[in-house]
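Data availability (excerpt). All sequences and predicted token strings are deposited with the supplementary files. A representative entry, Peptide deformylase, is shown inline so that the format can be inspected without opening the archive.
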Amino acid sequence: MRVTQFGEPVLKQAGKKVEVFDEALKKLSEDMFETMYAEEGIGLAAQQIDKAIQMFVIDLCVREKDIDFSYTLDGRTPPLELIMPMVMINPEIETSGEELPYEEGCLSFPGIRGNVIRPSVVRVKYQDITGQSHDLECDGIFARVILHENDHIEGTLFIERMHPDVLRPLESKLKKLKRKTRDFLKRRGG
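Structure token line:
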């Protein structure tokens, strides 16, 4: 699947709640994972593949093995390999902990990276691909990826969370990317 780029309207759309958990949704999640892996990402939201729904996928086993984080899923801590890859649908998030900076990138913003300050602990109630409810508490990169992808399904971009001093040096790259997207949409007829 094609990853939507900065400047495409769907990236600013809040996602609709997922009501139907069927084979089409399962196929969509599989396509999202395939796209995420092809782009060498660790998370991908539905808006990034042109679908404005409350769904994102994560796989921290791809590259984040050496980064320290903790988690409990439904009151237990199974090995990470048993819970990844993970699909989160209709998430409800509570944050806590210290606010920490970390350099983030985004598949919809190729070549753009910058520090974003986010809460360090997340508790999220969500549904999996079958509609089963879960309760996850995590910190570190796990929490950060969830917050980044959840922003996408709410129509918020990571550059909107950057401090102006971080964003200012990126402005020319962002304008160039937005122009490239605008030209692509014109050629496509959108």
